[in-house]
Amino acid sequence: MEDETLRRSMLFDFYGELLTGKQREYYDLHYNEDLSLGEIAEQAGISRQGVWDMIRRADKTMREAEDKLHMAARFTALRRELGEIESLLETALSDGGKAGIEEALRRLRGLEI
């Protein structure tokens, strides 16, 4: 995946429901709301280490799910392929090229969703 922030966000979107309520809450506060471990620990009434352990377990759970299911990777590949098909169609529209449309159609038919 492109970068670590995007990877975390995608994994959370796809697999966040697999986490416990506390894992989901702490992960979201730390990575999406940009709270520090200390701020989360203070709010939760636990140690910074406790927050960090919870976030690490959440990350591990989501990575293991992705390793088995590949949903985020497939989504990324599909989005990339659709972007390329869109470019083919835009080019074909601007220059009237039938070959570009045929190529786009071939690629659309080949997508595995």
What radius of gyration results from the CA coordinates? Answer: 20 Å
Secondary structure class reads mainly alpha
Strand content: under 5%
The total strand number stands at 0
Spans where pLDDT lies below 50 across 5 or more residues: none
The shape, in one word, is elongated
Amino- and carboxy-terminal Cα gap:
19 Å
Largest sheet: none
Give the helix tally.
6
> Average pLDDT, to the nearest integer?
91
- What is the share of helical residues? over 70%
Order of helices and strands: HHHHHH
Question: Would you summarize the structure shown here?
Answer:
With 113 residues, this protein is mainly alpha-helical.
Observed structural traits:
113 residues, mainly alpha, 6 helices
Task: Write the SSE topology.
Blueprint: H1 4-15, H2 21-32, H3 37-44, H4 48-69, H5 71-95, H6 98-110
Describe the structure.
The chain is mainly alpha-helical. The protein is 81% helix and 0% strand. The longest helix is centred in the C-terminal third of the chain and has 25 residues, at 71-95. The protein starts with a helix and ends with a helix. The mean pLDDT is 91.
